[in-house]
């Protein structure tokens, strides 16, 4: 490395540290590295790299799986930061419940949170047990507690039980990541059955309400609620109308609830991803053509990998973001957002 390259890398790393973003959180696909002890800071080891060249680009191989898809069976397997995310104690002692924490974006948040020092409960569907066990192993390897609570979020009573069990087993709760979602592409409005509409609404909207309602009485001041929305909230794809409506609801909820619960010292924020390479897309979330060309239309020319979102979830949960509430953080590969 030349001296210029080496000093600009030091500047970048310094900038990230000042900005509160863990340097390791931006690494992608590198060789496995030993994790620091929980709470310890890690030495940064990120080389400067062109973001367009990092991670796979379309076209992607044709593939589909029955819903809910497993990420271990995807080609390529999504990168959720398994070998790259390094923590620096930003969430030491925190306790998080993450829905959809088995795979994709929720899995990236779970890995990052554990490596930042938090204990984690994840929820997922029983069919996703293999993905969930992978995540639990990674959480435990980071020296943190992993609690696995499978179950269907379309059931209000289960949502209440989920929060209660997470709180009991973690010894409290101060981060809720409402991230699970259902997305099923249809070419025409006429093809969206009432059954599908119901599943999309219940999973993406009702569960968000039920989980927040159940959690709020128990969240101490300083807690954070984070909801995963989508760029579809305002720029809906023509193929996922029902899903897009739920994502708009996610953002209205974030902005309204933030005003209400700031009075309890609780912050509420949203994350609005563009195209990310996750099981949601191969389990019916995209048309065949859409999947093959996934991410092509972004200025970056490729989809994001969940690992590239992890630091946003950490940032929104961390105590250092104490003035951040009612915000939606876009991560869209270059489409200005929101
Ligand atoms: P993913 O498939 O890895 O995660 C979705 C999870 O939702 C599943 O793992 C599953 O556990 C959970 N889930 C679905 N129905 C459920 C139910 N009835 N009960 C319990 N759990 C259920 O995919 P992902 O892309 O990481 O999705 C995470 C979030 O990101 C979602 O809110 C999604 O809308 C959002 N998002 C994804 C993209 C993308 O391109 N992948 C873009 C914008 C927003
Ligand atoms: Mg999954």
From TrEMBL:
TM annotation in the entry: none
MF GO annotations: oxidoreductase activity, acting on CH-OH group of donors
InterPro entries found in the cross-reference section: NAD(P)-bd_dom_sf, SDR_fam, TAT_signal
Keyword field: Oxidoreductase
Keyword Oxidoreductase: yes
CDD domains: SDR_c1
Segments of skewed composition (Low complexity): 32-49
Ranges where the record places region Disordered: 25-73
Oxidoreductase keyword on record: yes
Gene3D superfamilies: NAD(P)-binding Rossmann-like Domain
Family listed: Belongs to the short-chain dehydrogenases/reductases (SDR) family.
Matching PANTHER family: NADPH-DEPENDENT ALDEHYDE REDUCTASE 1, CHLOROPLASTIC, NADPH-DEPENDENT ALDEHYDE REDUCTASE-LIKE PROTEIN, CHLOROPLASTIC-RELATED
Name this protein carries in UniProt: Uncharacterized oxidoreductase YghA
